[in-house]
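Service request form, structural biology core

Requester: graduate student, group of Dr. S.
Request type: structure prediction, single chain
Budget code: on file
Notes: please return the result as structure tokens.

Sequence provided:
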Amino acid sequence: IQFDGDNIRTKEVALSSDTILKPETISLHYGSGGGEWHQNFIQKLHGKNNGLSILEGKPGTGKTCYLRHLMGELKETHRFYFIPTASMGILSKPEFIGFWTDQRSNYSEKKFAVILEDSDGALMTRGTDNRDQVSALLNLTDGMLADFIRIQIICTINCSAAEIDQAL
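Core staff response, request fulfilled:
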């Protein structure tokens, strides 16, 4: 997702075929229960229209690699959107609702997932610097707006999950 002024648009980026990991690679990198956890996560993404998922781990633990795998595996049923860390303020823009309305009419057969990498700041306990982002995430994933927009938001964080806002 790109945002400049009042204009919100998308730019498609193709993933290479090597993003999909073999089951033994998932077990190697994410532990012996990694494959089972992945299948359960896939079921949740297929079963729910909206929600928030948070992948916690120190830098370099494979969160981005896993997200690439997930996007590659679900490309037929889901449409993925990436919002860069510097642009997370877009979540609270009124124009964002119109953007999703347009996307929904263009890709009505797909489920939508938004990727927010390194989103620690947007998820931390509410303060003057992130209040709007936390509120927007709550509304988009669990509020009345979530029923209309129908997106899954998948965040990665490097901090401890204990530090994120309790409402999330």
